[in-house]
Design brief:
The chain is an alpha+beta fold. Helix content is 52%, strand content 13%. A hairpin with a 5-residue loop joins strand 4 and strand 5. The relative contact order is 0.07.
Length: 302
């Protein structure tokens, strides 16, 4: 019996996918079991904290003697476990922290004191698969304050229908931090653009989840004339293009006219049928997020 190559490759791909998924689930289950164990050990330590630091030191030594292959039970880590249990006195249950690696939880305890913020960061880390380094960067740049509690000035409620309007607001930050740009008093727009593109990974991280880079100096032709958009992105969740215009000076009202022209052109020339269906005629078309970036490294949106 001959093997159909296409069918065989399909079977192989299916089996590989199942193996990968099973391994991932096994790793996640093992990690959650470990985090639960650390919480329980921390609870026991806290229940006997009147025994003092000597208790933890003796315990670490006894674990090392009785279980020489076991790792993660140093004095320092046992103290982290006690802190972890004290941070979540009612247990971790189905909370996001139970799904995070131990290093992530240590970073959260060390850098975020507010429980609601800590829960938000944990949820975001799980949802977007942040590494510990990225989690620390997001905390240090105060992502929660910039994305959740900031008073964002937008016209999305009048220009977009829900749920797109809600999703658009949630996707924004105020301000955006582009500290990878070597801002100088005479920095030209093209230089700013080059720095952003050369640091595309950091730029996408700062823009947020769902942004995909389409291109720089994106060309389109209209009425026989050539035009170039500084940076063009696409938001995968919102199914909308994002037009960014860079300016080396403070914002001026005439800039709004230029970027509105770009938005209209992208909507008419580039947007496909599957891209953010146009709302009623009294609202803005599908391309709704436009940005001006000035030397202040703050992104202004409308």
């Amino acid at each position: 019996m001959l093997i159909n190559d296409h069918e065989y490759m399909t079977v192989v791909a299916d089996i590989k996918s199942r193996i990968s998924d099973a391994r991932h689930r096994a790793l996640m289950a093992a990690n959650e079991e470990l985090i639960q164990l650390y919480w329980h050990i921390g609870s026991i330590l806290n229940a006997h904290k009147e025994w003092g630091n000597k208790f933890i030191q003796n315990l670490a030594q006894d674990i090392r003697t009785e279980l020489p292959t076991a790792t993660g039970y140093s004095v320092r880590n046992l103290k982290y476990m006690a802190q972890f249990a004290a941070t979540y006195p009612d247990g971790i249950g189905q909370q996001a922290v139970a799904q995070l690696p131990w290093g992530h939880n240590i970073a959260l305890m060390a850098q975020v004191s507010d429980p609601s913020q800590r829960a938000w960061y944990a949820g975001q880390a799980v949802e977007h698969g942040w590494s510990r380094a990225i989690l620390v960067v997001q905390i240090e740049t105060q992502l929660y304050q910039r994305q959740v509690t900031a008073q964002k000035v937008t016209n999305f409620e009048t220009r977009l229908l829900p749920p797109q309007s809600d999703l658009a607001v949630q996707a924004l930050k105020d301000p955006y931090i582009f500290d990878f740009i070597d801002a100088q008093s005479e920095l030209k727009e093209r230089d700013m653009e080059r720095q952003m593109v050369s640091n595309i990974s950091r730029l996408l991280l700062e823009l947020g989840t769902g942004f995909a880079f389409v291109g720089e100096q994106f060309h389109f032709e209209l009425d026989g004339q050539d035009f170039y958009i500084d940076l063009l992105f696409y938001h995968l969740k919102l199914h909308s293009y994002v037009v960014i215009e860079l300016k080396g000076t403070d914002f001026r009202p005439e800039f709004a006219g230029k970027i509105s022209f770009y938005v209209t052109a992208v909507d008419g020339l580039i947007r496909g049928e599957s891209d953010n269906p146009p709302p009623p005629t009294n609202l803005h078309p599908a391309i709704y997020l436009v940005a001006m970036i000035s030397l202040g490294n703050k992104l202004l949106y409308s």
